[in-house]
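INTERNAL AUDIT FORM
Audit reference: QA-55
Scope: verify that the stored structure record matches its stored sequence.
Auditor: D.O.
Record contents follow.
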Amino acid sequence: MLAEVFFGTHKERGFTPADDGVWDPEPKGANDKARSMDVYGTGNEPWFFTTEADAGAFSIEVVTGPDAEKGGFVNLVSWVHSLREVAEIYQKVHPDAKVEIVEKGSVEELEKKAVAGREKWGRSKFWEYHRLFFQLFTIQGTWNLGKLDNDRYPGVKATSLEQFLKENPNI
């Protein structure tokens, strides 16, 4: 998941709860750092995040590295955290903030909602429901990367969530 899309840092609002996403970038109440997050499942499932800058830096290292001519796949991320950990770290970086976790339901309920969206909208309007499947596959671990290869590219220092939040104070 690109961190900028998840948090809506470029005024992107495509992964908000209003669009069946997770993070609501709009302040809640008088506190301009108070946020909310919609969570299916336990909220303890791992989510894999990469910043746009890290994706670019890793890409350069991969295509210019000693094994580039061999091709293949590499698993690279900025950080891995559960949604509950994301909320905790956000509140650590912004001590005056509170992240309200809105528990939306079980994984089974999410799957039913995703399937119902696909049945209602079909393939031609997948934008109406695809975020539900994104969440479902993330929570179920379908898209988990397995062993990470960050250590193969020591020239890239992956951005931590805490650093990313500090570098993007408007989140």
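Auditor finding: record pair retrieved intact. Residues 113 and 132 are 7 Å apart (CA to CA).
Action required: none
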